[in-house]
Amino acid sequence: MGEKTDVWQGTLTLMVLKTLEAMGTMHGYGLARRIEQTSGDLLQVNYGTLYPALLKLEQEGYIRSRWGVSENNRRAKFYELTKAGQRRVRKAAAEWEQTTEILARFLAPVQEG
Amino acid sequence: MRRLRALWMRLRGLVAGGPAAGEFDAELESHVAMHTEDGVRAGLSPEEARRQALIQLGGAEQTRQAYQDRRTLPWVESLLRDTRYAVRGFRRNPMFTITAIATLALGIGATTAVFSVVDRILFRSLPYAHDDRLVSVGLVQPLEKQEFTLGGFFFEWRDNQKPFSSMTFERGVNACNLTEANPVHLDCAQVAQTFLPTLGISPELGRNFIPEEDLPNGPRVALISDGLWLSRFNRDPNVLNKTIDLDDRPVRIVGVLPKDFEMPRLQPSDIVLPAQMDVAAQHTVNSGIGFPLWAFARLKPGVSIAEAKAEMEPLYRHTQQWIPAEFRKEFLLEVRSVRDRQMQDAYTAAWLLLGGVFAFLLISCANVASLFSARGAARERELAVRSALGASRGKLIRQTLTEALVLSVAGAAAGCALAEILLRVFIAIAPTDVPFLAAARLDPRMVLFTVLVSLFCAGLCGIMPALERPRASALVARSTNPGAHARLRRVLVVAQFAISLVLLSGGSLLARSFWNLEKANLGMQTRGVLTVHVPLSGARYTTTDAYMNFYLRAEAALRRLPGVTGVGMSDSLPPDANSWHSGTRYAEIFVAGKPRPPAGTGGTVVIRAVTPGYFHALQIPIVEGRGFTEEERRMSDHPIILSRMLAARLFPVEDPIGQHIQKATFDPYFSLNGPVYTVVGVAADVKNAGLADQDDPEYYTLRRDNAEDWNPHAAILIETALPVSVVAPWVRTQIAQIDATAPAEIDTLAQTVNRLADRPRFETALLGFFAFCGLSMAVIGLYGVIAFVAAQRTQEIGVRMALGATRVDILRLIAGEGVRLIVLGGILGLGAALAAVQLLKSVLFHVGTHDPATFIAVTLLLFVVALAATLIPARAAMKTDPMQALRSE
For position B869, what pLDDT does the model report? Predict the structure, then answer.
């Protein structure tokens, strides 16, 4: 197992939003597992940090929550994107792509010429 | 927007709205359960799976805490928690809470009320543009200490001065009458055309005078006050160019003054007229020195008052030639700010008040600090326990500060209410000559000041006990150790006593001085004497004949009233030094056959023109010779009566009766072409220069039935045994029969004299109040310390008694502690008081600042009261049952 990377705050928000966009409705545990899997087990998500982040998103009105029943017949709280959340995830993804693109140019090997 | 929404949600979370905290536990539980299930499915034992799940979560409690912090606003929550904790503590300890709040309320209330009063006097901005650049310029001399100037000087100064951007003057305020339908009595000010622009006042309506209107015999125009505009014209904007009849002559209104307008010398004024001064004539009129006027000027930018005075000095020396050579040296140039000129000795009262209340505030702060410290000591173990359970030092300090803050806010609220009451009391008992006091209000700045004071108290009281680090030993000690707390509180008690002593000595000195003032021998009777003033309109009474006729008829009519045993008249009344009376200089009195007195003024001599009834009405004894007779009023002789003081000075060895005296006239200087007076009697001395000041020598001339002896100044004295309420209507009827338009102002002489003592009464009452409250607080503080020390030492007392100590030994042990504090505080306080009372020097009457009787009495009083405060807890300690004391804890 290689060295795992800690998730820093801002990107965690984006990952949550993006995952919810892709998967629709999910509960907290599912979200945590999904993010871990998507990162190819490279990310060590401290599951506990997920919940304050979810609460913040909810307070800001990007996601909403309701109680439901999980696939294993267990009561769980499910999260989904709101309209504002959908707009937000598109905007943030675009911004992120632009940022990484710019960084990529800096990090790319210098072309001789 | 999103941030605001989040903040709103978190605030809702604070008041238990939004997602409930318990809900998260359920979510967390379901999370862990699902994770555990997955673990079991992967082949782990259920226990191991749950352990792994919790590890990956990062701890259930930490997650819960992080979630909670996000759910609400943590700092607000902790503040609320601290506040709730504090309030709970206060409720458990109501005595402490009430004492602390009452102490703070008294301190804050008194401070705010006094600040509201002195703010108007010391810090109020005058209603002029850039009022700090305005100065009053003039001359002072021993007979007139308020600077004034004269036409002969002013125009030369104005045209040649450098330090001022402009210079202007006013010619004083005179009585005038609006003589049209509903005539009213008004005050008319005469000012230069440059007056309003120099002070930076622009009319509310209309315009200032134009230069052509300020020339001799120029058009008659006027500016009216806002008050007159309202009362007379109901704020009619068409008032401009209206003509009013002022003293039977038409005057055109050209403007309305702003609402806050006031004359720089604070005289009341309803109408402002152009002075229309004849500049060229100023070197010829009034013996060549010109008419008196009062000059004001605006400093150029960057010029200080001292620099302006230095620059004016050569100009002044040049104009000195106009002053009679005899007095030239006694005239001095004065330049001071308009504010100083206005406030005069109100400054003394204001600083006195401020000083008194500041000392009082110190005592109350010390008391609260002491209370908190005692509480801190009692709670030492609690703090130590909380500290051991993980509360940081910062948290403990925050907790203590919150407690102080809660108390201060409560104290400030109570203090504001108290301040409002105190302010009303101040206004009710204040002398009328403290400017602006009647208008003093608790304004928002005062409330802010209160809050600042209360925060200051909170900081002081809160930090001190919190800084005393809770010791680990407090956890294990069987009884807490009072060491550090007690030391701090002893220091506070000593300080309180020292400050109380300062306040008490100041208050007592003022009280003694006031007592002396009340008991001062006036040299005349004030009981059973009524004074009648009739302000006659200058327009109706144009000659001295007219005045004489009015007063002679009034005298005859009043004599006929039943119950009136005597009527006298005078141009002025003692003991007021400021009422109108003519005076002269001792050097201007010449005795026939004696050499001229040496140069210099020799001081003031009061001259009073009286009728024979004056001495009888006031019961001033004639100690030599005789009084004036009724027959003399119709003769052409010039009899004169000297006061004993003047007689002794003029005739140290000779018999004064029959001597001839002349008063110098100034046309030309020091010529003797006035009447020759013959001394017919010597009267006993009367207080004639105010209640508190040294008496001046005085002489009386007879006001004969001859117009040359009369002028508009006259007061009628009525001697009667009947109450004023009975006689006053009769007097009014009699006066109205002579002149229906003349209003009579009737007063008892006792009231008039009493009013002169208003200011010392005010100062004494206030300082006395602070001294009393301060002493009470100091005593409460001392009682608290001794009771606390006694309680802390209960066990020790038990051991001592078990080992054979008598009750007296115990009393000595506990009381000795208090006595040491009292003595130390007393010595420090005496030293401070002896220094501080020097500030009272100028307001004390017939009491030295180091009056030994006062200081001994005050120290004794303090000692006795303090001893009582010590003995009560000490006696309680003495009665301790040793068995119980040993068993306790």
Answer: 80
Chain B residue nearest residue A59, CA to CA: B6
Based on C-alpha coordinates, what's the Rg of chain B? 38
CB B70 to CB A75 under 8 A?
A: no
Whole-structure pTM value = 0.63
Q: Is the CB of A73 inside 8 Å of chain B's CB atoms?
A: no
CB-CB contact of B199 with B187 (8 Å): no
Q: Of B71-75, B450-454, B536-540, B771-775, where does mean pLDDT reach its minimum?
A: B450-454
C-alpha B596/C-alpha A93 separation (Å) is 111
What is the per-residue pLDDT for B164? 94
Amino acid at residue number B346: A
- Please check whether residue A28 is in contact with residue A76, taking contact to mean a CB–CB distance below 8 angstroms: yes
Closest to B540 (Cα-Cα) out of B185, B242, B181? B185
Task: Specify which residues B188 forms β-bridges with.
Answer: B174, B271
Do the Cβ atoms of A81 and A17 come closer than 8 Å? Answer: yes
CB B361 within 8 A of CB B107: yes
Instruction: Of B372, B532, B377, give the one whose Cα is nearest residue B464.
Output: B372
Other Cβ atoms less than 10 A from the Cβ of B39: the count is 20
The Cβ of residue B130 has, within 10 Å, a number of other Cβ atoms equal to 13
Q: Which helix (H) or strand (E) holds B886?
A: helix B882-887
Q: Which residues 46-65 of B have a C-beta within 8 angstroms of A?
A: 56-59, 62-63
3-state SS record for A47-112 = HHHHHHHHHHHHHHCCEEEEEEECCCCCEEEEEEECHHHHHHHHHHHHHHHHHHHHHHHHHCCCCC
Confidence of residue A113 (pLDDT cuts 50, 70, 90): very low
Kindly give the pairing relationship between strand B205-206 and strand B184-191. unpaired
Among B618, B639, B844, CA closest to B752: B618
Sorting pLDDT into bands at 50, 70 and 90, what band is B468?
Answer: low
Residue keyed to tokens 């009286």: B610
pLDDT for the residue numbered B678: 92
User: Which residues, 6+ apart, have CB-to-CB distance to B157 below 8 Å?
Assistant: B137, B149, B167, B295, B312, B315, B316, B319
ipTM score over 0.90, yes or no: no
- Residue written as token pair 């191991």: B48
Please say whether the beta carbons of B653 and B594 come within 8 A: no
**Could you tell me if B485 and B435 are in contact, meaning their C-beta atoms sit under 8 angstroms apart?**
no
A55·B67 Cβ contact <8 A: yes
Distance of alpha carbon B39 from alpha carbon B49, whole angstroms? 5
Query: pLDDT tens digits for B298-308?
Result: 999 999 999 99
| DSSP-based three-state secondary structure for B682 | strand
* Six token digits for residue B714: 């006259």
HEC string for B600-662: CCCCEEEEEEECCHHHHHHCCCEEEECCCCCHHHHCCCCEEEEEHHHHHHHCCCCCCCCCEEE
Distance from CA of B52 to the nearest CA of A (A): 12
DSSP strand pairing (A43-44 vs A5-6): parallel
Q: Residue B668, preceding bond cis, omega within 30 degrees?
A: yes
Q: Which chain B residues are within 8 Å of A27, Cβ to Cβ?
A: 30-31, 34
CB of B195 closer than 8 Å to CB of B168 = yes
Q: Is B356 exposed, middle or buried (0-12, 13-18, 19+ CB in 10 A)?
A: buried
Establish if B5 touches chain A: CB-CB under 8 angstroms.
yes
